[in-house]
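agent> fetching stored inputs for the zinc ion docking request
agent> found them:
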Amino acid sequence: MCRLLFCLLALITLGETVKAQDIHSYANPSAVRVRHLDLDWNVLFDQKILKGTAVLTVERISETAPLVLDTRDLKIEKVETSAGGANYAPATFTIGASDKILGAPLTIPLPAKANRVRIQYSTSPGATALQWLDPAQTAGKKQPFLFTQSQSIHARSWIPLQDSPAVRVTYTARVHTPRQLIAVMAAEDLSGDARDGDYQFKMDQPIPSYLIALAVGDLRFKSLGPRTGVYAEPHTIDLAARELSDTEKMVMATESVYGPYRWGRYDILVLPPSFPYGGMENPRLTFATPTILAGDKSLVSLVAHELAHSWSGNLVTNATWSDFWLNEGFTTYLERRILETVYGRDREEMEAVLGLRDLKEEIDTLDDRDEILHIDLTGRDPDDGSTDIPYEKGALFLRHLEETFGRERFDRFLKGYFDHFAFQSITTAQFVDYLNKNLLGENPKLARKVPVAEWIAKPGLPENAPQPSSAAFTRVAEQATQWLQGKTPADKIPAANWTTQEWLHFLRYVQDHITPAGNKPIETPGSRPALPSARMDQLDKAFHLTRSGNSEIAFQWLLMSIRNRYEPAYPRLEEFLMTIGRRKFIKPLYEELAKTPEGKARAIEIYRRARPTYHPIAVASVDVVLNWPGN
Ligand code: BES
Ligand code: ZN
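agent> prediction call returned; pasting tokens
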């Protein structure tokens, strides 16, 4: 059995070291490789388009091969080529058939010696990477806002390029905006302080296309430390600066274990609430949802996570989206190490337990093939591979290595790994090869305790996977049990000093342990027992959960409220869905609603109004849940 798995892994290794084919890109980087971009755009809010030019500098490995680029819904107006000088000659180009997931290839035959290609183009209003917000969707309500989200394969909807994480480019950009707005990019800002509608940037370090990012809006900046700061709308900037004041400490904590931060500045951009993700690790400028601003720093694990990507992801990048766990599993592991350094071991343990619980719950619902770290995404959108498997199973695998080889040895290994592969994009096979040579090989006795092939190529979790535990959570669970059994009334639960993580554990524990004995459960779809509304009401009266301003607690409570049909929370549910566009929150809430006919009707009624305010990426997910526009 195990031998077969090793065989399988050896095959992956062989195949991949020869050539890792990125099935999510039309590009041919082994024949013609884009090395640098010079971008210039006008940001046209009235038409919801970017209009401008992209000049691509290419390396010609094959003398005859054409340049093949990825595009999605781009309007290509003109293509020209040059042999390096300022003289451009008109070029022919063809745009192939458009695939729903991949978009369309743009093929440009290259004359001898040509190494520059200038493309004049504009985006379409439906570009999947762009969200154009009306003033009403911003905190200030007066100015429009634009932001991009390129990961996984959305960069091609705003820039014609080789949209594969295996292709790294440097770039410069010039952005023309309405005068009252400012532009920021995940790059070095060369614009100075003038708000003159003309902004310039450069990124000298080679990065994959999914990390190219731009935002335009009425933004302010506040410094957080010598090389850290935050951008947000004027209305949000003070709250954001207070909440994120530990950022510099986090950078130092990460550096102390994994080596210097290599990107110069680390700033955070707090976006309007329709940002579809919690955070996005755009280099030098993390993009973040405002839903992390809880007022008590309890949700800043997100900053630890996005910052960690400056090593695991941005420095060493997955070569294809099947290797995504190399980005997210490593980052989730690093995130917890940062939290431990800055906030202590208790906090790390709580986060690890919450993560494992999510993972196990998801494993119960996923197909076997999707529980594999090195996932097969044939015919699928890589965004669909973004489950807890790459994040939590990946992190648990690294924890297993750490626990087996000892922290000191494993830290040294990881630091060496980041140095060795710095500014490269690598495959799972390359990682396994490096692991064998630099850790496992030196101690076969310890190595036998970590079933690497099983971790990477088998569904579920190995039998001897680590079991994180938290003493604080054990106490919370005891309280939850007491309450469930009717032994402690809600207002006597000693929750005054509970952290957000303890609250999340309490709510999940209660939901998982509703027992017929204490609670006279009512029947819900799937015959899951539910808490009667009167019991939900006791918790709500004691702790004001429906009104919680903490997005994670509110989300957990609203999910529970749908499951238990706790009607007093429904207006808040509607408000939540109407104002927040973070996919991690809205998708599960719509899914839970859709489990009953009444719930689904309510979901559709809310979605009809909320949909125009959501990001195209969130819309794509919720459309599937609600079978839209079939409904
Ligand atoms: N890189 C991801 C976001 C992402 C993943 C965007 C896949 C597009 C496709 C980012 O680092 C991330 O993992 N964000 C998480 C937050 C984190 C604390 C787990 C999120 O947005 O929920
Ligand atoms: Zn991440």
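agent> quick read of the result: Residues 11-18 have pLDDT under 50 and may be disordered.
agent> awaiting further instructions
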